[in-house]
Amino acid sequence: MKINLEIIDAAFLVDVEQITDLNTKELVPKMVLRRRLTRASKLLIELISKVGFKKGRIVYGSGYGELLATSNILKAISNKSGVSPTDFQNSVYNTAVSYASILSSNESEMLTISSGDETSLKVLKAGAVKALDGDEILLVVTETFNIDNIDEINSCKNILESAVCLRVKITKEEANLFYEDCTLDVNVPKSVSHMFKIAKEFEKSRSIIEVNL
Beta partners for 169? Predict the structure, then answer.
């Protein structure tokens, strides 16, 4: 089965260490709420703002989840100290999309996917199925690898923070933007690559993709 999607808007963020030019303070004015946000949450909130997504269904993906919270928990266990309740709360894969939905009072369906290197491809496929209902869907993938001692386990990627989102809806138009070849000039994680390719090549004149289920 094939489903064609129109990319209404797209945005991406990327940095070798940490993305710094975020508008989190303006987007989340209350400091008590802002301090709770994980890196992935901040990236997701930034992307939602960039593509003008208000409320609606979101398909969110991350191949590796909230690494900082997870590493903090493991350190606490290793040091035989108490695990931080905040780290415990933030360690689940749907942390970012949950914070985003709470802050925007978005009560629509939120689906979280983690599928290793194929995460963004699986997000595309799930989003295509969801789009059959006729509404706009937000597709997002984030990866945040910038944690202590990351160099000890990471030897293949030079991008430690990356995030991409696509605002899509179903269409009957023919595909004119292709993403199967994920060759990129940016060494983003494979879990982000399919959607990153689309976002980088998105133009108003080329905005239709074909998703094979």
Answer: 6
Both tokens assigned to 10: 């797209």
pLDDT tens, residue by residue, 1-15: 999 999 999 999 999
Helices within 51-93 (DSSP H only): 67-78, 85-90
pLDDT grade, residue 52 (50/70/90)? very high
- Which pTM value belongs to this model? 0.92
Please give the backbone phi and psi of residue 58, each rounded to the nearest 5 degrees, phi first. -130, 135
Range of the domain at 73: 2-212
| Number of CB atoms found within 10 A of residue 213's CB | 10
**Residue 213 DSSP code:** -
- Give the residues across from 206 on adjacent strands: 203
Type of residue at 74: L
How many domains does the structure of the chain reveal?
Answer: 1
